[in-house]
């Protein structure tokens, strides 16, 4: 069974604008899927809907059999989300940011796991720094570490390359590769075809709230 199953998801915002017009997708465990589309296509809305942040107005999303609307807590615990905007507590230390995030999911303390993700993101020597003391790139690394704090089985990355330098981008791609080897399923949004090409197994092209095409990366690239 797919780890993520999305059926006919619709989302209308309060102003009546329908940002998702019936989206369906199945994602296999361990797969890396790129949601590729221009600005305004509905990528962030779709991720927010799947993660239970944006209330959907139709359809269903299930994570490992847990319906995101009816069984939010169980579903959300399986998901890590790296948002586009930096939403960190500025005066918290890096170490505590990751540790407390894990605690929010009701999980027992696991310093070994916190250390692992901080090292994985080259943040170990910053563990005692306050978030406010970090550069923008380091803050992005903390966002990823935070999303991995509770050992999610599915990781969402919303426009991971937006405003990121070459070194961090390369590092993120390395981390994505490591996570996939650990069996983590990854969904990222991007408007760069090069990024989809570099890391995805499958690409879903989204435009105006609809999925136009879902294809293996290799067969898509042969046609470009
Ligand atoms: P993407 O991530 O692909 O750039 P978004 O999901 O952010 O696209 O936005 C999809 C569409 O929904 C856009 O046309 C955007 O203007 C609209 N939209 C996003 N948020 C809201 C909102 N809170 N209210 C109304 N429309 C919104
Ligand atoms: P508290 O007393 O609030 O539980 P901690 O003992 O978790 O605080 O952390 C105090 C400081 O020690 C943190 O800022 C962190 O940098 C550091 N620290 C705690 N545990 C570890 C660890 N396993 N490895 C490295 N540093 C740690």
From TrEMBL:
Signal peptide (from-to): none
UniProt GO molecular function: ATP binding; ATP hydrolysis activity
ATP-binding listed as a keyword: yes
Domain ABC transporter: from-to ranges: 4-224
Keyword field: ATP-binding, Nucleotide-binding, Transport
Keyword Transport among UniProt keywords: yes
Name recorded for this polypeptide: ABC transporter ATP-binding protein
Source lineage: Bacteria, Pseudomonadati, Pseudomonadota, Alphaproteobacteria, Rhodobacterales
